[in-house]
Amino acid sequence: MKGKGKHAFVKITLGINNAAFNIKVDDVNLRVNAKGISKASLENLACSVCNSDHRVEMHHIRMLKDLNPKANYIDKIMAEKRRKQIPLCRECHMNHHNKKQ
Known about the structure:
With 101 residues, the chain is of the alpha+beta class. The chain has helices spanning 73-81, 90-97; strands at residues 23-25, 28-32, 38-41, 56-60, 85-89.
């Protein structure tokens, strides 16, 4: 399509180098696969509270404004790192949700 007032779509092809998408952010390795989906790897992570590496899982919140750093230690850690998720061992995670920490 050529000429004044004509529109056309351009097909752009990009080569994907998967090695260029491995990014280390804080303690979590983010990997982007060819489809563009990022996944957090929980391998080699330690609990942010007790430094245990047994049964580590991620604690999530929806928004940073929901944090109350004065109320508990885990919210304080998340506010300092400005992160919506941090690794916690199963015991610390359950204690947090049961309001024991």
